[in-house]
Amino acid sequence: MNLLVVKANNRPASQGVSSKMYETFMESIKEANNLNVTVYDVFEEDMPYFGQELFDAFGKLQSGDELSELEQRLLAAKQKAKDVFAAADVVVFIFPLWNLTVPAKLHTFIDYIDEAGYTFKYGSDGSPVYLMPEKKIILMNARGGYYSSPEMQKMEHAVNYMRSIFAGMFGMELTDEVVIEGHNARPDKAEEIIGNGMRKVTEVAEKLAYQYA
Questions:
Q1: pTM over 0.85
Q2: What is the rounded average pLDDT of the residues 176-186?
Q3: Which of 8, 2, 3, 1 has the alpha carbon at shortest distance from 140?
Q4: Coil, strand, or helix at residue 206?
Q5: Residue 194 half-sphere exposure, CB side, CA atoms within 13 Å?
Q6: Measured torsion, CA atoms of residues 28, 29, 30, 31, in degrees rounded to the nearest 10
Q7: Is 125 helix (H, G, I), strand (E, B) or coil?
Q8: Closest among 98, 134, 107 to 16, alpha carbons compared
Q9: Given this model, what pLDDT does residue 37 score?
């Protein structure tokens, strides 16, 4: 089984809880010989931001004009993201909540793969048609505050965004979700909150290895 792990935090595990989630997950699957694991670290990859330069590059490809260095980098980065995503049976996203949303680099990865004709297409009535509905998605997120309450959920644009994209826009199955929250809001409970969360990360990893054994 091809497993893609998208790492979206460049803080050390001693400082970033989602970085520790990543390390815990990878440690838990290291003996699973049935998993063919690819790691895509959005902070290590060359990922120019999505903008007019990409559309200029598409136009130049059609006209046969020479691409600038930035346009070449953009096309190469987008294609790499599409290739690793397409090859995966299961994709695990491990990411923090930063300023109420996902890190910009993770958003860029999603911008690369959110393409009509690739992850979806438009039906005759204009609604999206899912092109990769068989792909499984696992979300792992850390956030220092509490966002599970009804009054705070509407302010959370990280997990909610990822659900909307992968389940809503792409029609993929969200098989598991681990959210660690409140460790900054309750420093007296931080160790307990993080410890419980890491056990859940391990459980999901072991379940994944067992399912595809």
A1: yes
A2: 97
A3: 8
A4: helix
A5: 22
A6: 100
A7: coil
A8: 98
A9: 97
**Beta-strand pair 90-96/173-181:** unpaired
- For the chain, what is the total number of helices (H) and then of strands (E)? 7, 7
3-state secondary structure of 137: strand
Res 97 pLDDT > 80: yes
Region of residue 73 (left: phi > 0; alpha: psi -120 to 50; beta: else): alpha
SS (H, E, C) 33-97: CCCEEEEEECCCCCCCCCCHHHHHHHHHHHHCCCCCHHHHHHHHHHHHHHHHHHHCCEEEEEEEC
Contact 71, 53 (CB under 8 A): yes
CA–CA gap between residue 16 and residue 96 (Å, rounded): 8
The beta strand positions in 117-192, using DSSP E, are: 120-122, 128-130, 136-143, 173-181
In order of 90, 118, 135, 139, the CA distances from 130 in angstroms are 16, 9, 11, 20
